[in-house]
Design goal:
Helix 1 packs across helix 2. The longest helix is centred in the middle third of the chain and has 13 residues. The chain has about 70 residues and is mainly alpha-helical. The chain has a domain of about 25 residues. The protein contains three helices and no strands.
Length: about 70
């Protein structure tokens, strides 16, 4: 890791104090509760049959349907 941490930057406690000073403790706590209680969207599992042939080819799967070969036309 080559990130340099700066000790002169204010920490999270200073940010919370600034929020409480600007909006009040009640509004900050209510916003936190709303954020924590909010439902998280669950990622829907995509079935293999729902993928387009382009995506299937990109990830190494065979196409759902075989196209007609040029000599069959």
């Amino acid at each position: 890791m080559n990130a340099e941490l700066r000790s002169d930057l204010p920490g999270p406690a200073m940010a919370v104090r600034a929020l409480v000073a600007e909006y009040g403790a009640v509004r900050v706590v209510l916003a936190l509760v709303r954020h924590l209680a909010g439902r998280r969207a669950l990622a829907r599992r995509i079935r293999e049959t729902e993928l387009s042939d382009h995506i299937r080819r990109d990830i190494g799967l065979d196409p759902r349907t075989q196209g007609r070969r040029y000599w069959e036309l």
